[in-house]
Design goal:
Elements (H helix, E strand, L loop, with lengths): L1 H7 L29 H10 L5 E6 L7 H9 L11 E6 L9 H15 L2
């Protein structure tokens, strides 16, 4: 982010860029770990062949990058037959896509289409 801001946007400042503030200290009982429900999701999807999942993600999101979500889903230990039960919907805004009216309207259409295919 710092390289983008300085090189592309030509913005100079010595203040540190912090993605998340006021949430430390994190504690997951294991050093260098992060929360993940990927294993549980794969397990539940394997037990219920009718379970469908809609993944909503923002293209401009530094807190929950859409590529990280794609990576996690792509690497689920899941029978290939169930991969078709996963649908993606992406939005121009970040993970709070509902604050951008066009994304909110798209999200409403995506949810309606997912619920009533």
């Amino acid at each position: 982010m710092n390289a983008y801001v300085r090189d592309e946007l030509k913005f100079e400042d010595d203040l540190p860029y912090e993605i998340l503030t006021g949430v430390a200290p994190w504690n997951y009982d294991t050093p260098n770990s992060y929360p993940s429900v990927a294993g549980r999701l794969a397990s539940v999807m394997s037990q219920d062949p009718y379970l469908r999942v809609l993944v909503l993600g923002g293209l401009r999101d530094l807190a929950c990058p859409i590529d990280g979500i794609h990576y996690s889903i792509d690497h689920l230990e899941l029978d290939p037959a169930y991969r078709g039960n996963i649908t993606y919907a992406e939005y121009e805004a970040g993970h709070m896509m509902y604050v951008n009216r066009p994304d909110l309207q798209k999200m409403q259409r995506d949810l309606a289409g997912f619920i009533q295919p």
